[in-house]
Amino acid sequence: MSNKKIKIGVVGVGRGKSFMQGASDLINMKLVAICDTWEERLEKVGNEYGVATYTDYERFLEHDMDAVILANYFHEHAPFAIKALEAGKHVMSETSCNATLAEGVALCRAVEKTGLIYRLAENYPHTVFNQEMKRLYMEGEIGEVTYAEGEYNHPMSPYDRLKLSPGRYHWRSWLPSTYYCTHALAPLMYITETIPVKVNGLSIACREVDEMTVRVTDPGSVILCRMDNGSVFRIFGLILPGHSNWYRLHGTRGAMEITRGPGYFGPGQVRVWHEEWDLKPGEVKERTYVPNWPEHGDLAEKAGHGGGDFWTNFHFANAIRSGEQPFLDVYRGVTMSSVGILAWKSALEDGHPFEVPDFREENSRKKYENDNWSPFPKDAGPGQPPPSILGRVEPSEQAIAYAKKTWDEIGYKGE
Ligand SMILES: NC(=O)c1ccc[n+]([C@@H]2O[C@H](COP(=O)([O-])OP(=O)(O)OC[C@H]3O[C@@H](n4cnc5c(N)ncnc54)[C@H](O)[C@@H]3O)[C@@H](O)[C@H]2O)c1
User: Fold this and answer.
1) What is residue 242's predicted lDDT score, i.e. its pLDDT?
2) Given strand 270-273, what is the order of strands in its sheet?
3) pLDDT of residue 1
4) What is the distance in A from the centroid of ligand 1 to the CA of 9?
5) C-alpha–C-alpha distance, residues 216 and 176, integer Å
6) What is the distance in A from the centroid of ligand 1 to the CA of 19?
7) Which residues of the chain, if any, have pLDDT below 50?
């Protein structure tokens, strides 16, 4: 495999386009096929890239390729990943890896059975400042983590949100407030190499934020994770007014964070500080600076999400070539995704703690193999939870009319 070009196929022509762009000669990767059920969009993107197009996933999997990148609906990745693995393809999957705990167990088993590479396509750990904080952490700059905070709170206008979520049952309108937690949590896990073992979740309901959309979920949540070294991480999101993508870590001998301020990730500086009595010779009490990329800065600079979008394909390609599972492997991916699910169970019980299974261990994960608990409309049935702590809420007629008008503009014809 080492010198061979890696042939990839991408599912989903929305977010999927950034992986198509990233499949370049620079990392010896080539896009050969794409798949989407939205035919007009599929053909347009297919023409742009000059590659084979498929509306049927099973047929797409028959295409001659080494790996599949999944950017289809948020809550439908696991069954697609398992099919791709069973068809002999390596998989990189957008977040979330699994929409239920049972899917998480099945996915771990499928990766173990096939021995193929699986990677969560998290890009936020690879921003320049999160890579710098990892370097500092590994050098012992702040000692061992005791407490950390990660925020991914990304408000958008009702119009923009409706454009991104065509249809009353689109996943973005049904996603409980705790589920999209990986952008806040993954960087902290990557920097510290710790993993959550217990969670508490609280959801913030506020219908005013969604007055003019068809979202039936809460706009905000806080998750507390007890990590495997005893530390506590606070995870905040999701669309409450007041944009904030931000990270801070405290350790046994200091702290570090990215500075707050305007911009998608703020001013992009790292701030490190120590107590006077903890200073080692040559260390300063406090410093703030704009870090440099460890490598490939010129390529990363051109990519989206603070450069993070370059590194997803890069690390996936390296994992395939080396045959070694990447850091963001199936266990870390499924654990993170399951934090969102378990925190939702917790939020519906006003913060009751829930244990996170050890997905590496069959003994620990087995009891979840039939846990199909899910708030999504496709899984509706007795015993399934609501997507809001307010229960099952209905959008107003005015919001539905506004939504239909917006979807019309983007050529969406469904309900
Ligand atoms: N990492 C990031 O920065 C980032 C940014 C945006 C989105 N995402 C993630 O990427 C994924 C996709 O996001 P999006 O915004 O493009 O979502 P989307 O819902 O707009 O797009 C999903 C696409 O998948 C297609 N699709 C759905 N079912 C299909 C099927 N059975 N077969 C083939 N195609 C199918 C849809 O037609 C649509 O074009 C989500 O999981 C989202 O969380 C990640």
Assistant:
1) 97
2) 286-289, 270-273, 254-258, 244-251, 145-153, 232-238, 220-227, 196-204, 354-355
3) 47
4) 14
5) 9
6) 12
7) 1
